[in-house]
Amino acid sequence: MLNDGEYSTYTQRDGAFVLYNVLPGVHLLDVQSHTHLFSQVKIQLLEATETDDEMGLKCIEYAYPGASKQAIPHPLILTAHAQYQYFEPRQGFSIGTIFKNPMLIMMLFSVGLMFFMPKMMENLDDEQKEQMQKQMELQSDPTKMLSSLWGDMTNDPEAEAKKSIKGGSKARRSKRE
């Protein structure tokens, strides 16, 4: 293809190609292939003079855009630089990929905790066991847990009035006795 489709042709079975009725000037030859990568060739066609019957032809090859220029002879012989790889080969089975799975890592961590937590509980002191039992009792009733965490931070006037009534009745009983 010349100049992004201004002139185009197909290759023959032996790989040869011919472009007809190309006007003089500077043209860019680009080979369109789905399987191979070819370099671009800049072709300069000069007009024929009265003394020469043939047109002047200069060809410069660019391996890739920005690469150094290289003059090549006519007729052009273009070779593929690379073959396109559209698909990646499938990875084989590996035990390592199974252990990199986040779900398996979480499962192994949970099983490890289920195994080691009873062992850790056996090594606790009696005081620490009692403290943990109290915390578990508080966690069973959410209202007790919240009241112990927040304490008197609620500033609820009804709750303060109830506390003062309870505290006053205790004080009276202790005076009477």
Task: Name the descriptors.
177 residues; alpha+beta; 4-stranded antiparallel sheet; two-stranded antiparallel sheet; 5 helices
Could you provide a short overview of the structure?
By secondary structure, this protein is α+β, with helices and mostly antiparallel strands. The chain has five helices and six strands, in the order E-E-E-E-E-E-H-H-H-H-H. The model is unreliable at 168-172 (pLDDT under 50).
Structure description:
The chain has 2 domains: 3-83, no CATH class; 95-140, no CATH class. It contains 5 helices and 6 strands. The protein has 177 residues and is of the alpha+beta class. The strands form 2 sheets. It has a 4-stranded antiparallel beta sheet, with no helix packed on it. The protein has a two-stranded antiparallel ribbon with strand order 2-6. The chain starts with 24 loop residues before the first strand and ends with a helix. It comes from Proboscia inermis. Residues 2-106 form the ER membrane protein complex subunit 7 beta-sandwich domain. It is found in: Membrane.
Widest beta sheet: strand line-up: 1-3-4-5
End-to-end separation in angstroms reads 114 Å
Number of helices: 5
User: Which class do the helix and strand fractions yield?
Assistant: alpha+beta
For the sheet with most strands, the description reads: 4 strands, antiparallel
Helix coverage percent: 25-40%
What is the radius of gyration? 44 Å
Q: Strand tally, please?
A: 6
Q: Could you say which overall geometry the principal axes of the C-alpha atoms support?
A: rod-shaped
Mean pLDDT figure = 77
- Strand content bin: 5-15%
Protein name: ER membrane protein complex subunit 7 beta-sandwich domain-containing protein
Region (Disordered): 146-177
InterPro entries: Beta_sandwich_EMC7, EMC7
Membrane topology: Single-pass membrane protein
